[in-house]
Amino acid sequence: MRNCMSFHGRVNLFETQPRIAVEHNALYMPTHGADNSQGRAAGLYDVKGKLILEAARFRGPEPHSIGSPFSTWFDPKRAKNIWSEPAFYMGQFAKHYGHFLVDSLCRLWAYQKNESRKIKIIYHGTEMASEFFKIDYMRNILNAMGLAEVDFIKFDEPTLISKIIVPEPAFEELSYVYKEFATFFNSLGNIIAPADENTIVSDRPIYLTKINIKSGISHFVNEDEFANVLSNAGVEVISPELLSLEEQIKIFRTRSVITGLTGSAFHTSIFVPRRNYLCLNYHDTIWSNQLLFDRANENVGFHVCPDNDSPNSGTDANFGNNFHIENPKKLAEEFLRAIDDFQFWLTGTQYVSSYRNIPQLQLRGSPTGHQPQPESVHELSLDEIGKLTGTDKSSKAHGYLKFYDRFVREIRVSADKVLEIGVLNGQSLQMWGTYFTNATIVGLDINPETLKYSKGRLKVIMADQSRSADLEAVAEEHGPFDLIVDDGSHIWEHQMNSFTSLFESVKSGGFYIIEDLQVCFPEIVGYEHYRQGRDFSTVNFLEKLSNYVVRGCVPESEVDVRYGAIMPKLEFVAFHYGTVLLKKK
Protein backbone atom coordinates (compact mmCIF):
# COMPACT_ATOMS: atom_id res chain seq x y z
CA MET A 1 0.00 0.00 0.00
CA ARG A 2 1.26 3.48 -0.78
CA ASN A 3 0.22 7.06 -0.19
CA CYS A 4 -1.62 9.02 -2.87
CA MET A 5 0.77 11.71 -3.96
CA SER A 6 -1.10 13.67 -6.64
CA PHE A 7 -4.52 15.09 -7.34
CA HIS A 8 -6.50 16.14 -10.39
CA GLY A 9 -8.07 19.59 -10.28
CA ARG A 10 -7.54 22.69 -8.20
CA VAL A 11 -7.96 23.16 -4.46
CA ASN A 12 -8.80 26.83 -3.93
CA LEU A 13 -10.53 28.02 -0.75
CA PHE A 14 -12.10 31.48 -0.51
CA GLU A 15 -13.02 32.95 2.86
CA THR A 16 -15.13 35.79 1.45
CA GLN A 17 -18.82 35.47 0.67
CA PRO A 18 -19.70 34.49 -2.91
CA ARG A 19 -21.24 37.17 -5.12
CA ILE A 20 -24.99 37.60 -5.43
CA ALA A 21 -26.24 39.08 -8.70
CA VAL A 22 -29.71 40.50 -9.28
CA GLU A 23 -30.84 40.35 -12.91
CA HIS A 24 -33.85 42.07 -14.46
CA ASN A 25 -35.61 40.66 -17.53
CA ALA A 26 -33.50 37.54 -17.55
CA LEU A 27 -34.19 34.93 -20.22
CA TYR A 28 -34.73 31.37 -19.00
CA MET A 29 -34.00 28.78 -21.67
CA PRO A 30 -35.44 25.38 -20.73
CA THR A 31 -33.68 22.06 -20.76
CA HIS A 32 -36.32 20.73 -23.15
CA GLY A 33 -39.10 22.49 -25.02
CA ALA A 34 -40.70 23.22 -28.35
CA ASP A 35 -38.11 25.86 -29.28
CA ASN A 36 -35.18 23.91 -27.83
CA SER A 37 -35.81 20.21 -28.35
CA GLN A 38 -32.13 19.30 -27.97
CA GLY A 39 -31.47 21.49 -24.93
CA ARG A 40 -28.70 23.14 -26.90
CA ALA A 41 -28.99 26.52 -25.14
CA ALA A 42 -30.45 25.66 -21.73
CA GLY A 43 -29.45 28.29 -19.19
CA LEU A 44 -30.12 31.79 -17.90
CA TYR A 45 -29.30 34.76 -20.16
CA ASP A 46 -29.43 38.53 -19.95
CA VAL A 47 -31.50 40.75 -22.23
CA LYS A 48 -28.68 40.74 -24.78
CA GLY A 49 -28.75 36.97 -24.98
CA LYS A 50 -25.44 36.53 -23.10
CA LEU A 51 -24.99 33.91 -20.42
CA ILE A 52 -25.31 35.25 -16.85
CA LEU A 53 -21.99 34.04 -15.43
CA GLU A 54 -23.28 33.55 -11.86
CA ALA A 55 -25.90 31.18 -13.32
CA ALA A 56 -23.41 29.17 -15.36
CA ARG A 57 -22.09 25.78 -14.34
CA PHE A 58 -18.33 25.53 -14.66
CA ARG A 59 -15.90 22.72 -13.95
CA GLY A 60 -12.12 22.76 -13.47
CA PRO A 61 -9.23 22.33 -13.42
CA GLU A 62 -9.22 24.70 -16.41
CA PRO A 63 -12.73 26.10 -15.83
CA HIS A 64 -15.10 25.55 -18.74
CA SER A 65 -18.84 25.93 -19.05
CA ILE A 66 -20.98 22.78 -18.94
CA GLY A 67 -24.29 22.67 -20.79
CA SER A 68 -24.82 26.40 -21.37
CA PRO A 69 -23.24 28.25 -24.31
CA PHE A 70 -22.07 31.78 -23.64
CA SER A 71 -24.85 33.12 -25.84
CA THR A 72 -28.29 31.91 -26.87
CA TRP A 73 -29.65 31.50 -30.37
CA PHE A 74 -33.07 32.57 -29.08
CA ASP A 75 -34.08 36.25 -29.32
CA PRO A 76 -35.35 37.31 -25.85
CA LYS A 77 -37.94 39.53 -27.54
CA ARG A 78 -39.66 36.43 -28.89
CA ALA A 79 -40.38 35.03 -25.42
CA LYS A 80 -44.14 34.71 -24.94
CA ASN A 81 -44.02 33.48 -21.37
CA ILE A 82 -43.43 36.13 -18.66
CA TRP A 83 -42.75 35.53 -14.94
CA SER A 84 -43.45 38.82 -13.23
CA GLU A 85 -42.73 37.86 -9.60
CA PRO A 86 -39.27 38.01 -7.98
CA ALA A 87 -37.50 34.64 -8.10
CA PHE A 88 -34.35 32.83 -6.93
CA TYR A 89 -32.13 30.82 -9.27
CA MET A 90 -30.99 27.40 -8.05
CA GLY A 91 -29.42 25.85 -11.16
CA GLN A 92 -29.63 22.15 -12.02
CA PHE A 93 -31.53 19.55 -10.04
CA ALA A 94 -29.29 16.46 -10.02
CA LYS A 95 -30.37 13.11 -8.56
CA HIS A 96 -26.90 11.69 -7.90
CA TYR A 97 -26.05 12.29 -4.23
CA GLY A 98 -22.66 13.90 -4.79
CA HIS A 99 -23.84 16.09 -7.65
CA PHE A 100 -26.92 17.10 -5.67
CA LEU A 101 -24.63 18.44 -2.95
CA VAL A 102 -22.16 20.25 -5.20
CA ASP A 103 -24.37 21.27 -8.15
CA SER A 104 -27.95 21.57 -6.91
CA LEU A 105 -27.27 23.04 -3.46
CA CYS A 106 -24.27 25.20 -4.28
CA ARG A 107 -26.42 28.35 -4.59
CA LEU A 108 -28.98 27.68 -1.86
CA TRP A 109 -26.62 29.05 0.80
CA ALA A 110 -27.91 32.46 -0.34
CA TYR A 111 -31.56 31.45 -0.11
CA GLN A 112 -31.05 30.97 3.61
CA LYS A 113 -29.96 34.60 3.78
CA ASN A 114 -32.83 35.92 1.66
CA GLU A 115 -35.20 38.08 3.69
CA SER A 116 -38.22 37.30 1.50
CA ARG A 117 -37.79 33.55 1.89
CA LYS A 118 -40.97 32.51 0.09
CA ILE A 119 -40.08 33.66 -3.40
CA LYS A 120 -40.11 30.85 -5.94
CA ILE A 121 -36.93 28.88 -6.61
CA ILE A 122 -36.39 28.40 -10.33
CA TYR A 123 -34.40 25.41 -11.49
CA HIS A 124 -33.33 23.56 -14.62
CA GLY A 125 -34.18 19.91 -15.10
CA THR A 126 -36.40 17.46 -16.91
CA GLU A 127 -38.54 16.38 -13.95
CA MET A 128 -41.04 18.07 -11.68
CA ALA A 129 -39.93 18.94 -8.16
CA SER A 130 -42.33 16.32 -6.78
CA GLU A 131 -39.99 13.62 -8.16
CA PHE A 132 -37.09 14.94 -6.14
CA PHE A 133 -39.07 14.99 -2.92
CA LYS A 134 -39.63 11.24 -3.33
CA ILE A 135 -35.88 10.73 -2.79
CA ASP A 136 -35.18 10.53 0.94
CA TYR A 137 -31.91 12.46 1.15
CA MET A 138 -33.19 15.25 -1.11
CA ARG A 139 -36.40 15.58 0.87
CA ASN A 140 -34.55 15.59 4.20
CA ILE A 141 -32.15 18.31 3.13
CA LEU A 142 -34.77 20.52 1.51
CA ASN A 143 -37.16 20.07 4.42
CA ALA A 144 -34.35 21.08 6.78
CA MET A 145 -34.32 24.37 4.88
CA GLY A 146 -38.08 24.70 5.32
CA LEU A 147 -38.72 24.01 1.62
CA ALA A 148 -41.55 22.05 0.00
CA GLU A 149 -42.50 21.04 -3.54
CA VAL A 150 -44.52 24.22 -4.06
CA ASP A 151 -41.43 26.36 -3.58
CA PHE A 152 -39.85 25.13 -6.84
CA ILE A 153 -40.73 25.89 -10.42
CA LYS A 154 -39.31 25.26 -13.89
CA PHE A 155 -40.48 26.28 -17.34
CA ASP A 156 -40.83 24.25 -20.51
CA GLU A 157 -40.54 27.20 -22.88
CA PRO A 158 -38.35 30.31 -23.08
CA THR A 159 -39.42 32.65 -20.28
CA LEU A 160 -38.60 36.23 -19.33
CA ILE A 161 -38.21 36.69 -15.58
CA SER A 162 -38.72 40.23 -14.38
CA LYS A 163 -36.32 39.95 -11.40
CA ILE A 164 -34.18 37.02 -10.31
CA ILE A 165 -31.56 36.60 -7.60
CA VAL A 166 -28.57 34.67 -8.97
CA PRO A 167 -25.93 33.69 -6.39
CA GLU A 168 -22.48 32.57 -7.41
CA PRO A 169 -21.98 28.85 -6.69
CA ALA A 170 -20.21 28.27 -3.37
CA PHE A 171 -18.64 25.14 -4.90
CA GLU A 172 -17.22 24.57 -8.37
CA GLU A 173 -16.14 21.06 -9.27
CA LEU A 174 -12.39 20.45 -9.43
CA SER A 175 -11.78 24.16 -8.95
CA TYR A 176 -12.79 26.11 -5.83
CA VAL A 177 -14.93 26.23 -2.71
CA TYR A 178 -16.08 29.02 -0.42
CA LYS A 179 -16.04 28.69 3.35
CA GLU A 180 -19.73 29.60 3.14
CA PHE A 181 -20.34 26.16 1.60
CA ALA A 182 -19.28 24.38 4.81
CA THR A 183 -21.09 26.89 7.04
CA PHE A 184 -24.31 26.22 5.13
CA PHE A 185 -24.03 22.42 5.33
CA ASN A 186 -22.93 22.44 8.98
CA SER A 187 -26.16 24.27 9.81
CA LEU A 188 -28.18 21.65 7.90
CA GLY A 189 -26.37 18.87 9.74
CA ASN A 190 -27.36 20.41 13.07
CA ILE A 191 -31.00 20.26 11.97
CA ILE A 192 -31.05 16.80 10.36
CA ALA A 193 -28.91 14.98 12.94
CA PRO A 194 -28.23 17.33 15.87
CA ALA A 195 -25.63 16.56 18.52
CA ASP A 196 -26.76 16.50 22.11
CA GLU A 197 -25.32 15.82 25.53
CA ASN A 198 -26.05 12.09 25.10
CA THR A 199 -24.02 11.78 21.89
CA ILE A 200 -21.40 9.08 22.39
CA VAL A 201 -18.23 8.98 20.29
CA SER A 202 -17.04 5.46 19.50
CA ASP A 203 -13.40 4.55 18.81
CA ARG A 204 -14.42 1.46 16.82
CA PRO A 205 -13.26 2.05 13.23
CA ILE A 206 -15.90 2.07 10.52
CA TYR A 207 -15.43 1.29 6.82
CA LEU A 208 -17.79 2.75 4.18
CA THR A 209 -18.11 0.16 1.43
CA LYS A 210 -19.50 0.19 -2.12
CA ILE A 211 -20.35 -3.51 -2.11
CA ASN A 212 -24.10 -2.86 -2.37
CA ILE A 213 -23.91 -0.14 -5.02
CA LYS A 214 -25.28 -1.59 -8.27
CA SER A 215 -24.04 1.08 -10.69
CA GLY A 216 -21.71 4.05 -10.76
CA ILE A 217 -18.47 5.45 -12.10
CA SER A 218 -15.96 3.11 -10.41
CA HIS A 219 -15.74 0.23 -7.94
CA PHE A 220 -13.56 -2.70 -6.91
CA VAL A 221 -15.13 -5.85 -8.33
CA ASN A 222 -13.75 -7.94 -5.45
CA GLU A 223 -14.12 -5.39 -2.65
CA ASP A 224 -16.14 -7.94 -0.67
CA GLU A 225 -12.99 -10.05 -0.11
CA PHE A 226 -11.12 -6.97 1.15
CA ALA A 227 -14.02 -5.89 3.40
CA ASN A 228 -14.39 -9.36 4.93
CA VAL A 229 -10.82 -9.20 6.28
CA LEU A 230 -11.58 -5.81 7.85
CA SER A 231 -14.80 -7.11 9.37
CA ASN A 232 -13.08 -10.15 10.86
CA ALA A 233 -10.55 -7.80 12.49
CA GLY A 234 -13.33 -5.86 14.21
CA VAL A 235 -13.86 -2.98 11.79
CA GLU A 236 -17.55 -2.21 11.27
CA VAL A 237 -18.36 -2.42 7.55
CA ILE A 238 -21.27 -0.20 6.51
CA SER A 239 -23.07 0.43 3.18
CA PRO A 240 -24.05 4.13 3.36
CA GLU A 241 -26.73 3.84 0.66
CA LEU A 242 -28.67 1.46 2.95
CA LEU A 243 -28.86 4.12 5.66
CA SER A 244 -30.92 7.27 5.96
CA LEU A 245 -29.15 10.61 5.62
CA GLU A 246 -29.62 11.17 9.34
CA GLU A 247 -27.88 7.88 10.09
CA GLN A 248 -25.01 8.72 7.73
CA ILE A 249 -24.49 12.13 9.34
CA LYS A 250 -24.53 10.49 12.77
CA ILE A 251 -21.68 8.23 11.65
CA PHE A 252 -19.54 11.28 10.96
CA ARG A 253 -20.65 12.84 14.24
CA THR A 254 -20.05 9.81 16.47
CA ARG A 255 -17.06 7.93 15.03
CA SER A 256 -13.50 9.02 15.72
CA VAL A 257 -12.09 6.87 12.91
CA ILE A 258 -13.93 6.78 9.57
CA THR A 259 -12.48 4.87 6.63
CA GLY A 260 -13.80 3.67 3.31
CA LEU A 261 -13.50 3.35 -0.43
CA THR A 262 -13.33 6.69 -2.22
CA GLY A 263 -16.65 8.14 -3.30
CA SER A 264 -19.35 10.64 -2.50
CA ALA A 265 -20.07 8.91 0.84
CA PHE A 266 -17.18 10.97 2.20
CA HIS A 267 -18.95 14.14 1.04
CA THR A 268 -21.32 13.60 3.98
CA SER A 269 -18.48 14.84 6.19
CA ILE A 270 -19.51 18.39 5.19
CA PHE A 271 -22.53 18.18 7.53
CA VAL A 272 -20.26 17.95 10.61
CA PRO A 273 -17.28 20.30 11.04
CA ARG A 274 -13.65 19.16 11.26
CA ARG A 275 -13.89 15.45 10.47
CA ASN A 276 -11.00 12.97 10.18
CA TYR A 277 -10.93 10.08 7.73
CA LEU A 278 -8.75 7.52 5.97
CA CYS A 279 -9.70 6.88 2.33
CA LEU A 280 -8.77 3.99 0.03
CA ASN A 281 -8.37 5.09 -3.59
CA TYR A 282 -8.11 3.07 -6.79
CA HIS A 283 -4.86 4.69 -7.85
CA ASP A 284 -2.35 7.38 -6.96
CA THR A 285 -4.35 10.39 -8.18
CA ILE A 286 -7.14 11.92 -6.10
CA TRP A 287 -9.90 13.98 -7.71
CA SER A 288 -9.93 17.29 -5.93
CA ASN A 289 -13.67 17.51 -5.13
CA GLN A 290 -13.21 15.74 -1.79
CA LEU A 291 -10.15 17.85 -1.09
CA LEU A 292 -12.29 20.96 -1.59
CA PHE A 293 -14.75 19.59 0.99
CA ASP A 294 -11.79 19.12 3.32
CA ARG A 295 -10.50 22.67 2.87
CA ALA A 296 -13.89 24.24 3.54
CA ASN A 297 -14.79 21.95 6.44
CA GLU A 298 -11.31 21.80 8.05
CA ASN A 299 -11.21 18.03 7.66
CA VAL A 300 -8.04 16.02 7.95
CA GLY A 301 -8.09 13.31 5.29
CA PHE A 302 -5.46 10.76 4.36
CA HIS A 303 -5.54 8.91 1.03
CA VAL A 304 -3.88 5.58 0.28
CA CYS A 305 -3.97 3.15 -2.65
CA PRO A 306 -2.58 -0.26 -3.70
CA ASP A 307 1.15 -0.40 -4.40
CA ASN A 308 0.57 -1.13 -8.07
CA ASP A 309 -2.04 0.35 -10.39
CA SER A 310 -5.24 -1.67 -9.99
CA PRO A 311 -6.16 -3.72 -13.09
CA ASN A 312 -9.20 -2.25 -14.83
CA SER A 313 -11.41 -4.43 -17.01
CA GLY A 314 -13.12 -1.34 -18.36
CA THR A 315 -16.74 -0.37 -18.87
CA ASP A 316 -19.79 -2.57 -18.58
CA ALA A 317 -23.52 -1.88 -18.33
CA ASN A 318 -23.27 -0.78 -14.70
CA PHE A 319 -19.85 0.77 -14.06
CA GLY A 320 -17.49 2.95 -16.04
CA ASN A 321 -14.44 1.37 -14.34
CA ASN A 322 -14.22 -2.16 -12.98
CA PHE A 323 -11.03 -2.24 -10.91
CA HIS A 324 -9.63 -5.40 -9.32
CA ILE A 325 -7.65 -5.76 -6.08
CA GLU A 326 -4.79 -8.13 -6.93
CA ASN A 327 -4.33 -9.44 -3.38
CA PRO A 328 -7.35 -8.44 -1.22
CA LYS A 329 -6.05 -10.09 1.97
CA LYS A 330 -2.63 -8.42 1.78
CA LEU A 331 -4.12 -5.02 0.98
CA ALA A 332 -6.65 -5.37 3.81
CA GLU A 333 -3.92 -6.20 6.33
CA GLU A 334 -1.91 -3.17 5.24
CA PHE A 335 -5.03 -1.02 5.46
CA LEU A 336 -5.66 -2.30 8.98
CA ARG A 337 -2.17 -1.18 9.94
CA ALA A 338 -2.91 2.22 8.42
CA ILE A 339 -6.14 2.35 10.46
CA ASP A 340 -4.15 1.47 13.56
CA ASP A 341 -1.62 4.24 12.97
CA PHE A 342 -4.38 6.72 12.14
CA GLN A 343 -6.29 5.72 15.29
CA PHE A 344 -3.24 6.33 17.43
CA TRP A 345 -2.54 9.65 15.76
CA LEU A 346 -6.09 10.77 16.60
CA THR A 347 -6.75 9.22 19.99
CA GLY A 348 -3.55 7.74 21.40
CA THR A 349 -4.99 4.20 21.19
CA GLN A 350 -4.71 1.33 18.73
CA TYR A 351 -7.83 -0.61 17.89
CA VAL A 352 -6.54 -3.26 15.48
CA SER A 353 -3.39 -3.86 17.53
CA SER A 354 -2.81 -7.38 16.18
CA TYR A 355 -1.65 -5.76 12.95
CA ARG A 356 1.12 -3.66 14.52
CA ASN A 357 3.72 -6.08 13.10
CA ILE A 358 2.87 -5.13 9.53
CA PRO A 359 5.48 -2.73 8.05
CA GLN A 360 4.49 0.80 8.86
CA LEU A 361 2.87 3.05 6.28
CA GLN A 362 3.79 6.71 6.66
CA LEU A 363 0.35 8.22 6.16
CA ARG A 364 0.48 11.18 3.82
CA GLY A 365 -2.06 13.94 4.19
CA SER A 366 -4.27 15.32 1.49
CA PRO A 367 -3.13 18.80 0.43
CA THR A 368 -6.23 20.17 2.13
CA GLY A 369 -7.96 20.47 5.45
CA HIS A 370 -6.93 22.91 8.18
CA GLN A 371 -3.30 21.77 8.07
CA PRO A 372 -0.68 22.81 5.50
CA GLN A 373 0.25 20.37 2.74
CA PRO A 374 2.34 17.76 4.55
CA GLU A 375 4.19 14.95 2.81
CA SER A 376 3.05 12.68 5.62
CA VAL A 377 1.23 12.73 8.93
CA HIS A 378 4.68 12.09 10.38
CA GLU A 379 6.08 15.03 8.43
CA LEU A 380 3.70 17.58 9.85
CA SER A 381 5.70 20.10 11.81
CA LEU A 382 5.59 19.96 15.58
CA ASP A 383 3.59 23.20 15.65
CA GLU A 384 1.05 21.88 13.14
CA ILE A 385 0.54 18.76 15.25
CA GLY A 386 0.32 20.91 18.38
CA LYS A 387 -2.47 22.99 16.86
CA LEU A 388 -4.35 19.84 15.88
CA THR A 389 -4.12 18.36 19.37
CA GLY A 390 -4.93 21.67 21.05
CA THR A 391 -1.90 22.04 23.32
CA ASP A 392 -1.10 25.56 24.51
CA LYS A 393 2.53 25.06 23.45
CA SER A 394 1.54 25.77 19.82
CA SER A 395 1.57 29.09 17.98
CA LYS A 396 -2.09 29.53 18.94
CA ALA A 397 -0.89 30.23 22.50
CA HIS A 398 2.68 30.25 23.86
CA GLY A 399 4.43 29.63 20.54
CA TYR A 400 7.13 27.25 21.77
CA LEU A 401 6.88 24.48 19.19
CA LYS A 402 8.45 26.10 16.14
CA PHE A 403 11.49 26.79 18.30
CA TYR A 404 11.68 23.18 19.54
CA ASP A 405 11.20 21.76 16.05
CA ARG A 406 14.48 23.27 14.84
CA PHE A 407 16.34 21.01 17.25
CA VAL A 408 14.31 17.90 18.07
CA ARG A 409 13.50 17.03 14.44
CA GLU A 410 16.91 15.33 14.27
CA ILE A 411 15.68 12.64 16.71
CA ARG A 412 12.10 12.47 15.40
CA VAL A 413 12.42 8.91 14.12
CA SER A 414 15.21 7.59 16.35
CA ALA A 415 13.75 8.69 19.72
CA ASP A 416 12.26 5.86 21.76
CA LYS A 417 11.67 7.49 25.18
CA VAL A 418 10.23 10.92 25.99
CA LEU A 419 9.35 12.17 29.46
CA GLU A 420 7.02 15.09 30.14
CA ILE A 421 6.51 16.44 33.65
CA GLY A 422 2.94 17.69 33.90
CA VAL A 423 0.10 15.96 32.01
CA LEU A 424 -2.88 18.31 32.51
CA ASN A 425 -5.42 17.35 29.78
CA GLY A 426 -3.20 14.97 27.80
CA GLN A 427 -3.02 17.12 24.66
CA SER A 428 0.72 17.58 24.86
CA LEU A 429 1.32 13.84 25.35
CA GLN A 430 -0.73 13.13 22.25
CA MET A 431 1.31 15.71 20.33
CA TRP A 432 4.63 14.13 21.33
CA GLY A 433 3.26 10.68 20.49
CA THR A 434 2.30 11.80 17.01
CA TYR A 435 5.55 13.66 16.36
CA PHE A 436 7.92 10.96 17.67
CA THR A 437 6.70 8.05 15.59
CA ASN A 438 8.52 5.27 17.45
CA ALA A 439 8.74 6.61 21.01
CA THR A 440 7.03 5.73 24.26
CA ILE A 441 5.77 8.94 25.84
CA VAL A 442 5.88 8.95 29.66
CA GLY A 443 3.80 11.55 31.46
CA LEU A 444 4.55 12.37 35.11
CA ASP A 445 1.88 13.94 37.31
CA ILE A 446 0.55 14.01 40.87
CA ASN A 447 -3.12 14.07 39.82
CA PRO A 448 -4.67 10.55 39.60
CA GLU A 449 -7.25 11.90 37.12
CA THR A 450 -4.51 12.07 34.48
CA LEU A 451 -4.06 8.29 34.51
CA LYS A 452 -6.93 8.07 32.01
CA TYR A 453 -4.57 9.40 29.33
CA SER A 454 -2.50 6.19 29.47
CA LYS A 455 -3.22 4.66 26.08
CA GLY A 456 -0.98 2.70 23.75
CA ARG A 457 2.44 4.38 23.63
CA LEU A 458 1.29 7.05 26.10
CA LYS A 459 2.01 6.07 29.72
CA VAL A 460 1.07 8.24 32.69
CA ILE A 461 2.71 7.58 36.06
CA MET A 462 2.18 9.14 39.49
CA ALA A 463 5.23 10.97 40.85
CA ASP A 464 6.07 14.27 42.53
CA GLN A 465 8.68 16.43 40.83
CA SER A 466 9.49 18.16 44.13
CA ARG A 467 10.91 14.87 45.46
CA SER A 468 14.28 13.79 44.12
CA ALA A 469 13.57 10.19 45.15
CA ASP A 470 10.48 10.09 42.90
CA LEU A 471 12.39 11.51 39.96
CA GLU A 472 15.30 9.12 40.37
CA ALA A 473 12.87 6.19 40.53
CA VAL A 474 11.23 7.34 37.29
CA ALA A 475 14.62 7.63 35.60
CA GLU A 476 15.64 4.19 36.84
CA GLU A 477 12.47 2.45 35.68
CA HIS A 478 11.65 4.32 32.45
CA GLY A 479 14.86 6.03 31.28
CA PRO A 480 17.12 6.91 29.66
CA PHE A 481 15.24 9.57 27.69
CA ASP A 482 15.75 11.22 24.33
CA LEU A 483 13.81 14.26 25.52
CA ILE A 484 12.60 15.53 28.88
CA VAL A 485 10.11 18.40 29.07
CA ASP A 486 9.35 20.15 32.36
CA ASP A 487 5.85 21.62 32.13
CA GLY A 488 5.01 20.85 35.74
CA SER A 489 4.47 23.11 38.74
CA HIS A 490 6.78 25.93 37.43
CA ILE A 491 7.94 26.50 41.02
CA TRP A 492 11.58 27.58 40.81
CA GLU A 493 12.95 25.02 43.22
CA HIS A 494 10.98 22.23 41.54
CA GLN A 495 12.34 23.18 38.12
CA MET A 496 15.95 23.30 39.29
CA ASN A 497 15.58 20.12 41.35
CA SER A 498 14.05 18.24 38.42
CA PHE A 499 16.81 19.35 36.07
CA THR A 500 19.67 18.36 38.38
CA SER A 501 17.96 15.05 39.22
CA LEU A 502 17.09 14.04 35.66
CA PHE A 503 19.75 15.51 33.36
CA GLU A 504 21.95 12.45 33.88
CA SER A 505 19.12 10.29 32.45
CA VAL A 506 19.08 12.24 29.16
CA LYS A 507 20.76 10.26 26.38
CA SER A 508 23.80 11.57 24.56
CA GLY A 509 22.46 13.86 21.84
CA GLY A 510 19.18 14.26 23.71
CA PHE A 511 17.41 17.39 24.95
CA TYR A 512 16.01 18.88 28.15
CA ILE A 513 13.33 21.62 28.05
CA ILE A 514 12.08 23.83 30.87
CA GLU A 515 8.91 25.75 30.05
CA ASP A 516 7.10 28.86 31.25
CA LEU A 517 10.14 30.70 32.55
CA GLN A 518 8.09 33.91 32.53
CA VAL A 519 7.23 33.02 36.15
CA CYS A 520 10.75 34.10 37.12
CA PHE A 521 9.84 37.76 36.63
CA PRO A 522 7.91 39.91 39.15
CA GLU A 523 5.39 41.32 36.65
CA ILE A 524 3.89 37.86 36.09
CA VAL A 525 0.71 37.02 38.01
CA GLY A 526 1.53 34.37 40.62
CA TYR A 527 5.18 35.34 40.85
CA GLU A 528 5.29 34.97 44.64
CA HIS A 529 3.73 31.50 44.43
CA TYR A 530 6.42 30.27 42.04
CA ARG A 531 9.17 32.07 43.95
CA GLN A 532 8.21 30.64 47.39
CA GLY A 533 10.52 33.04 49.23
CA ARG A 534 13.64 32.33 47.15
CA ASP A 535 15.77 34.98 45.44
CA PHE A 536 17.68 32.68 43.06
CA SER A 537 15.34 31.84 40.13
CA THR A 538 15.44 29.16 37.46
CA VAL A 539 16.50 31.83 34.95
CA ASN A 540 19.38 32.84 37.25
CA PHE A 541 20.42 29.19 37.43
CA LEU A 542 20.32 28.82 33.63
CA GLU A 543 22.13 32.10 32.98
CA LYS A 544 24.96 30.98 35.21
CA LEU A 545 25.06 27.60 33.46
CA SER A 546 25.12 29.20 30.01
CA ASN A 547 28.00 31.45 31.09
CA TYR A 548 30.00 28.38 32.01
CA VAL A 549 29.23 26.78 28.62
CA VAL A 550 30.51 29.89 26.82
CA ARG A 551 33.56 30.10 29.10
CA GLY A 552 34.26 26.37 28.74
CA CYS A 553 34.72 25.65 32.43
CA VAL A 554 33.49 26.31 35.95
CA PRO A 555 35.95 28.61 37.77
CA GLU A 556 37.36 27.09 40.94
CA SER A 557 36.15 30.08 42.92
CA GLU A 558 32.58 29.31 41.86
CA VAL A 559 32.53 25.53 42.13
CA ASP A 560 29.00 24.23 42.75
CA VAL A 561 28.34 20.51 42.69
CA ARG A 562 25.29 20.99 40.49
CA TYR A 563 27.18 22.89 37.80
CA GLY A 564 30.32 20.79 38.06
CA ALA A 565 28.45 17.57 37.21
CA ILE A 566 26.33 19.07 34.43
CA MET A 567 28.55 21.51 32.54
CA PRO A 568 31.04 19.02 30.98
CA LYS A 569 28.12 17.07 29.46
CA LEU A 570 26.26 20.09 28.13
CA GLU A 571 26.63 21.03 24.48
CA PHE A 572 24.52 24.22 24.40
CA VAL A 573 21.78 26.23 26.08
CA ALA A 574 19.18 27.89 23.78
CA PHE A 575 16.73 30.46 25.15
CA HIS A 576 13.42 31.48 23.60
CA TYR A 577 10.43 33.44 24.82
CA GLY A 578 9.27 31.67 27.98
CA THR A 579 11.35 28.53 27.54
CA VAL A 580 14.84 27.05 27.30
CA LEU A 581 16.23 24.01 25.47
CA LEU A 582 19.49 22.34 26.48
CA LYS A 583 21.32 19.66 24.50
CA LYS A 584 23.45 16.96 26.03
CA LYS A 585 26.78 16.07 24.40
Structure commentary:
The protein is an alpha/beta fold. It is built from 17 helices and 28 strands. The strands form 7 sheets. Strands 24-23-22-25-26-28-27 form a 7-stranded mixed beta sheet, sandwiched between helices. The chain has a 6-stranded mixed beta sheet with strand order 1-20-18-17-14-16, with helices on one face. A hairpin with a 3-residue loop joins strand 12 and strand 13 (about 175-180). Helix 5 (about 180-190) packs across helix 8, helix 10 (about 380-390) runs antiparallel to helix 12 and helix 13 runs parallel beside helix 14 (about 490-500). The longest helix has 20 residues, at about 330-345. It is elongated, with a radius of gyration of 30 Å. The two termini are about 40 Å apart. The relative contact order is 0.08.
Fill in the keyword field for this structure.
585 residues; alpha/beta; 7-stranded mixed β-sheet; 6-stranded mixed β-sheet; elongated
Quick description:
This protein has about 575 residues and is of the alpha/beta class.
Any chance you could write out the topology, listing elements then pairs?
Layout: E1 2-3, E2 6-8, E3 12-14, E4 20-29, E5 43-45, E6 58-59, E7 64-65, E8 81-92, H1 97-104, H2 108-111, E9 120-124, H3 129-132, H4 136-144, E10 152-153, E11 159-167, E12 171-172, E13 176-178, H5 179-192, E14 206-208, E15 216-220, H6 223-232, E16 236-238, H7 245-254, E17 258-261, E18 276-280, E19 285-287, H8 288-297, E20 300-305, E21 319-323, H9 328-347, H10 382-389, H11 401-408, E22 417-421, H12 427-435, E23 440-445, E24 458-462, H13 468-478, E25 481-486, H14 492-502, E26 506-515, H15 527-531, H16 538-551, H17 561-566, E27 570-576, E28 579-584
Parallel strand pairs: 2-19, 3-13, 8-9, 8-11, 9-10, 14-16, 14-17, 15-21, 17-18, 18-20, 22-23, 22-25, 23-24, 25-26
Antiparallel strand pairs: 1-20, 4-5, 4-11, 6-7, 12-13, 26-28, 27-28
Helix pairs in contact: 5-8, 6-9, 10-12, 13-14
